[in-house]
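Key idea: predict the complex, not the pieces.
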Amino acid sequence: MIRFLLTKLLYLVPTFLGITFVAFGFVRVLPGDPVLLMAGERGLSPERHAELAHQLGYDKPFLMQYLDFLVRLLHGDLGNSLVTKKPVLTEFLALFPATMELGIVAILLATLIGVPVGVLAAIKRGSWFDQVSMTAALVGFSMPIFWWGLLLIIFFSGILQWTPVSGRISLMFFFPPVTGFMLIDSLLSGQKGAFASAFSHLILPSIVLATIPLAVIARQTRSAMLEVMGEDYVRTAKAKGMPYSRVVMVHALRNAMIPVITTIGLQIGVLMAGAILTETIFSWPGIGKWMIDSISRRDYPVVQSGLLLIAAIVMIVNLIVDLTYGLINPRIRHK
Amino acid sequence: MKLLSRSLLAVSALALSAAAPAMAKTFVYCSEASPEGFDPAPYTSGTTFDASAHPVFNGLVEFKPGTTEVEPGLAESWDVSEDGTVYTFHLRPGAKWQSNDIFTPTRDVTADDVIFSFERQGDAANPWHEYIPGITYEYYTAMEMPELVKSVEKVDDLTVKVTLTHSEAPFIANLAMPFMSIVSKEYADTLAAAGNKEDFNNKPIGTGPFKFVAYQKDAVIRYQKNADYWGDAPKIDDLIFAITTDASVRLQKLKAGECHLMPYPSPADIEQIKADPNLKLDEMPGLNVAYLAYNTTVAPFDKPEVRKALNQAINKEAIIDAVFQGAGQVAKNPIPPTMWSYNDAIVDDVYDPEAAKAALEAAGVKDLSMEIWAMPVQRPYMPNARRTAELMQSDLAKVGVKAEIVSYEWGEYLKKSMEEGRKGAVIMGWTGDNGDPDNFLSVLLSCASAQGGGANRAFWCNQEFSDLLTQAKQNSDVEERTKLYEQAQVIFKEQAPWDTLAHSTQFVPMRANVTGFTMSPLGDFTFEHVDLTE
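Result:
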């Protein structure tokens, strides 16, 4: 197991180095000059432009800039935002808990609904439940998130007024962040109604963010289950008179979980992409919205270091997923 | 689901009623973006000024609400020397600095604070010039303050003398702009001693109507009424900015009562807002202009008669209807009608495709093909440049001119449109900074601004026109200046370096119970006079 872990960790090093280059290069190949964007319609004299570019180090050759970036990275310096002038890491740490909270709730929602629906659709293959749920999954998978979020807001918050429109908690609650997770902080604050408010603010965004992963997980669970249900050992279990529920839950589901867990792990990346739109619609102060704003302003340090941090998180999650295989299927960890 | 939300509602209602007696009068503004910081000097966006300069700070002089007229701020009065180069400001006695958890002021506003506010921006040797790595003072530079301000001296604690290198009338309007907010030298010294200079930008201390309380990045900014404010105390106790970037979501929040006022609604939502009995809508012509700038250095656009003929070919009314959805008016001058010195006697080039065709023929222009540049982004003066360009394209086709629409990413667009020898005509615009006509005419149309780094995208240099601007700039008599600018507008119309397209209308939707809000022609959002009835 230790060796398994070490090999996995070793693979991360070149991957991470590759990501630093991609993250650094990505924002620079986009057309547009951060210095000029700051000046807007007014324009900037060539002298002033050169002065500012020099100050920011953008007049150096590309590779030199990249090396500078790597050296600073090794010293733990992710740079300062061009816009707010604040350290990128400070901003990231202030915003990341919001994204993580939303992401965790969304992935839990997607898994807790997606897996049972997939199992049920598989064992009742061809039934009305199978057809309805798989059609719904197809629709969910193809849903344009921005439109879907707005639709839910207009219906549930606008017309029915059941849920708040946007934000993380009602503005009447004001307490300093402790963990950054609003559900926990609202409980810690001891203010009456704070937790309920935080919870109600999470409902719509987590539904929106969970929609695509839920659809994918349900479909993947169904097809994995169908495959496993046709295996010899399942037939044997059925033949020896084992209760059907036990056959499904123990013999079939456990074996079907390997591709499902892979899918769930891969959904973390999808979730990051979805978070960008979801956070924008729901004014959710997380890193998705932060990245979008920074890309449009060509805030080089934020984009390159932000991408790096996000990539690192996705890599760690995938590592955890890989380790989970070992727990479920001992053959993998002994290989 | 239904049951759950009902109980949720019940819980929040309970919390609301429980908290009600202790709740002060709170005004919530659904702002459109996050501020870049809270020190007004290093930044240039209106969003940042709405969150920093307007609630927390004061300038020596300020814009009178709803106008671009300058009125006293921290300076009660000022004298200008005969030659217009020396300004003596008499400060308001007893204007108090705010306090926070790390700073308690020991004195009121003095000349030292004023000098510090100038020097930290203008003097690179000042220890506060670059108090955060990479910080610059773009507005101070752009308004040419480094060349203009010769010295700032203390006469006594409440008197400051500013000497200019030459007479310049718009100087006083520059001082009313947010970047010239007066900051506390004592606060700066305290922070420097404690070694946390960055807090100057994170925890602002000013003299304004509201005290900064807290900012949760990208989410909420909280302010509290400043009980020691030297002016009329605000009627609301707490001011909250709920940052909501999407216009449709802002409107939903406003309708749900989650905020009281919002900026920048989508033009498509205006009718819906007007029909809602819980909402009301203020509107005002914006201090802006959208235009199509020909490259006057490239044939055949170097001939005024060709430019005028093209102007006649373009149906601007149709653009107002289709693109601005009525929320704008046709422009005939380069400055908006709300600005002083607007020359209303000028007659616009009338839309007349036949006459345009004839004029082009007379000028010897045949089979003309040109580029029309359309910016990729929505701007306050232009909701949809692409659509505008398409309408122009079809108008021009009617007079036999083939137009190709080109576009670039916004930063590239800004750069390439100012490159020498640029082909065709660009759609551009401008929003005024300080309400002075010079801020439109000199920035966009003078000979100096036709050089690299300027903003004269027609590359139009008319010496007579530029001389009029220079004369007007050096004269502090508003009546005389008005005459000069009116004359300049006549030359502009004859020469037609642009097709002046539109002045857009600004809308501000708010809850019906909001009173005392005044729209600013400069596009500022200030809440010192707002109140909530009921």
